[in-house]
What we know:
alpha+beta, Beta-Lactamase, globular
Amino acid sequence: xxxxxxxxxxxxxxxxxxxxxxxxxxxxxxxxxxxxxxxxxxxxxxxxxxxxxxxxxxxxxxxxxxxxxxxxxxxxxxxxxxxxxxxxxxxxxxxxxxxxxxxxxxxxxxxxxxxxxxxx
Length: 120
């Protein structure tokens, strides 16, 4: 296989599918455009069920779209304080959004979602 056969997008998707944490990509309107294998497994949803849905709805997050820190922050990542319990298994997770802006507009939000330990 030559380097011409592997696009940067395909390579990135391959790498992110190997990450244990959930990674969800949403556009500037918080509409999901992609998620990794861990997110599909933890959410017990196929990519077709999720793409086009609002991120806060599929995650059951305490944040609504208007209050998401990704809208207001320039750098990233920062913990926005969103904690939610997954419906599958009852585990707690937190979301750390990383916004990507171009020409002053929010283009995409990478949501890094990881399990939260109840231990002190």
